[in-house]
Amino acid sequence: MIKKKVLVTGGAGFVGSHLCDRLLKEGNEVVCLDNYFTGQKQNIVHLLNNPFFELIRHDVTMPFFIEVDEIYNLACPASPIHYQYNAIKTMKTSVMGAINMLGLAKRIKAKILQASTSEVYGDPQIHPQTESYWGHVNPIGERSCYDEGKRSAETLFVNYHKQNNVKIKIIRIFNTYGPRMHPHDGRVVSNFIVQALQSEDITIYGDGQQTRSFQYVDDLIEGMTRMMASPDNFTGPVNIGNPNEFTILQLAELVIELTNSKSKIVRMPLPPDDPTQRQPNIDLAKKELDWEPKIQLREGLIKTIDYFASII
Ligand code: NAD
Ligand code: UDP
Predict the structure, then answer these.
(1) From CA 231, how far away is CA 101, in angstroms rounded?
(2) Which atom of ligand 1 lies closest to the CA of 215?
(3) Contact 247, 205 (CB under 8 A)
(4) In whole angstroms, what is the distance from residue 68 CA to residue 104 CA?
(5) CA 70 / ligand 1 centre spacing (Å)
(6) Can you tell me which atom of ligand 2 is nearest the CA of 208?
(7) How many angstroms separate the CA atoms of 202 and 134, rounded?
(8) For residue 2, is pLDDT > 80?
(9) Mutate to test the pocket of ligand 1, among 7, 8, 9, 15 (most ligand atoms within 8 A of CB)
(10) pLDDT given at position 1
(11) Residues 6 or more apart from 193 whose CB is under 8 A from it?
């Protein structure tokens, strides 16, 4: 018996495709909406023969009507090179996409989850980041189309909840990696693995002392689905990330070790406003969702390296 009808925007992307897999596996009916800006049909091709899976090419900046029980709003490019490619479109995707999906949720009384981001904390001045921290974002910088777009989306979510009683859930996702990242996605984990496997130089931006805390995609999907299933009075925002923090140089060295690569490390200029440190405080997720990540970096990287080795 079908449990729920679920809409996943951005479902052909890296995270969205894993979410579609998980929701189908749990017996739900899934509608995947995507405009394929950064996603690929390849990510969901294995689902196309499943009668409980439906694929719709659509842009979230345009209104969309459907009857579902739950909406996961993931549509938005996530890699800095892609979200900066057309900054106005990125902002429209976050803001108009949120308005369209919240309007839909209000009309059909669906529960809706927003894939927000650790980027709402900008270049954080408190460390690790708790949900109560308001962030340190440059509103006119290279990253602002994404950061401010996602911050505005959170504002919209909270106000649709307060004004219209829409059932909302906000998760702030920290750097996530795993199979199905696009090989030219531009984010650090996929860049380093692809470079190492092809014996190309490993490109470290800046001195490599900036930090990130890397989460394997399966842990994110577990946290995301737990958040959707949590009691209605827990709206978030809640951090979903792996608190183990690494410098970018440590990541490069680990990728070289695990791939047995002969690649050399080279330095490139640090992009403007690149956050110097990032680490989630996940006490709230532990308490409210009984969730914490299970897969540590070495294990997750091995799975991800196997994936890239199979497609390159
Ligand atoms: P991704 O780029 O692989 O996936 C985004 C998907 O959204 C793609 O399939 C893309 O084609 C689609 N999309 C973009 N604009 C659209 C539009 N206007 N209409 C319809 N579809 C559109 O990125 P991802 O890593 O899978 O990220 C998924 C979500 O999670 C994003 O909202 C992102 O901001 C958020 N997030 C991801 C991370 C991470 O580390 N992966 C961290 C923080 C937040
Ligand atoms: N980075 C790097 N080399 C690359 C890609 C990224 O050194 O080839 C750095 C980047 O400058 C940043 C970190 O790795 O400090 C994470 O970058 P990513 O684009 O993955 O995500 P975000 O900056 O949004 O966390």
Answers:
(1) 21
(2) 40
(3) no
(4) 10
(5) 18
(6) 7
(7) 34
(8) no
(9) 15
(10) 64
(11) 255, 259, 301, 304, 305, 308
pLDDT band per the 50, 70, 90 thresholds, residue 122: very high
Share of the chain above pLDDT 70, in %: 99
Residues belonging to the active site: 146
Tokens read off for 301: 């990287």
Pairing mode, if any, of strands 245-247 and 211-213? Answer: antiparallel
Q: What is the DSSP string of 6-34?
A: EEEETTTSHHHHHHHHHHHHTT-EEEEEE
Which residue do the tokens 């060295």 mark? 253
């910088």: which residue's tokens? 141
DSSP class of residue 244 equals -
Cα-based distances in Å from 147 to 33, 52, 125, 179, 259 = 23, 35, 16, 25, 33
Amino acid identity at 303 = K
Identify the CA nearest to 217 among candidates 111, 78, 102.
Answer: 78
Put simply, whether the predicted model's pTM sits higher than 0.85 gets the answer: yes
How confident is the prediction for the chain on average, in pLDDT? Answer: 97
**At which residue do the structure tokens 């919240």 appear?**
102
Q: Are strands 245-247 and 176-177 parallel, antiparallel or unpaired?
A: unpaired
For tokens 């690494």, what's the residue?
A: 246
Please report where in the chains the tokens 């405080």 appear, as a residue.
281
Residue with CA nearest ligand 2 atom 10: 205
Ligand that lies nearest to the alpha carbon of residue 173, given by its number in the listed order: 1
Residue-range domains of the chain with CATH: 5-176+217-243+280-294 (3.40.50.720)
Q: What is the mean pLDDT of residues 171-193?
A: 97
Q: Which residues lie closer than 8 Å to 181 by C-beta, 6 or more apart?
A: 14, 187, 189, 190, 304
- CA torsion 155-157-161-165 (nearest 10°) is 150
Q: Which atom of ligand 2 is nearest to the CA of 192?
A: 8
